């Protein structure tokens, strides 16, 4: 019995010796590829929710041209991401642009959703802190008449509503849309 154990151990030793020789071999060199990109944070607007305004034809009855219908107004909050706080900037100017409509081209044109024909008797009116936001005009958000509409985190609260334009006594029913561009320049 002793012989058999020794014989097994001798064979095992040979096997282990062979294994350790195989493990001592080196693996050929390989390449570890690494790429890196460091970019500046980009100040941008967060997604702006679409606004749906509704009114009855009768809501415009008796309204003067340039009157924003109070019952159509909705609050819209425009937020930014990765921007310095405008409260620490020298100035921050908001500009909203789109096709012109109404007296003094101060309002934003709506177009018919079925044919993109301009709506002639109503448009979009915007206000910030109940002060009109004229199309294409740079509004100083640090100005005391507008600054209450700007939160400490740069969020801008606007009111969007339908405004009567033109002299027609009756506004025509229509489904319409407008795409406006919002920009802020600050230093």
TrEMBL record:
Keywords: Signal
Cross-referenced Gene3D superfamilies: Fimbrial-type adhesion domain (2.60.40.1090)
Start and end residues of each Fimbrial-type adhesion domain: 34-187
Entry-linked InterPro entries: Adhesion_dom_fimbrial, Adhesion_dom_fimbrial_sf
Gene Ontology annotations of biological process type: cell adhesion
Highest taxon above the source species: Bacteria
Signal peptide interval: 1-24
A Pfam family: Fimbrial
Record's keyword annotation contains Cell membrane: no
Keyword Zinc set for record: no
GO CC field: pilus
Protein name in UniProt: Fimbrial-type adhesion domain-containing protein
């Amino acid at each position: 019995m002793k012989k058999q154990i020794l014989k097994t151990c001798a064979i095992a030793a040979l096997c282990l010796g062979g294994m350790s020789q195989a493990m001592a071999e080196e693996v050929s060199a390989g390449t570890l590829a690494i790429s890196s990109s460091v970019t500046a944070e980009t100040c941008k607007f967060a997604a702006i929710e679409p606004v749906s305004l509704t009114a009855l034809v009768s809501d415009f009855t008796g309204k003067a041209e340039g009157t924003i219908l109070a019952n159509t107004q909705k609050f819209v909050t425009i937020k930014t991401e990765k921007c310095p706080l405008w409260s620490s900037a020298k100035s921050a100017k908001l500009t909203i642009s789109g096709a012109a409509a109404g007296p003094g081209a101060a309002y934003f044109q709506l177009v018919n959703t079925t044919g993109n024909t301009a709506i002639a008797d109503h448009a979009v009116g915007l206000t910030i802190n109940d002060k009109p936001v004229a199309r294409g005009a740079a509004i100083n958000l640090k100005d005391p008449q507008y600054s209450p509409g700007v939160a400490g985190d740069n969020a801008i609260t606007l009111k969007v509503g339908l405004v009567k334009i033109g002299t027609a006594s009756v506004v025509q029913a229509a489904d319409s849309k407008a795409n406006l561009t919002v920009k802020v320049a600050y230093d």
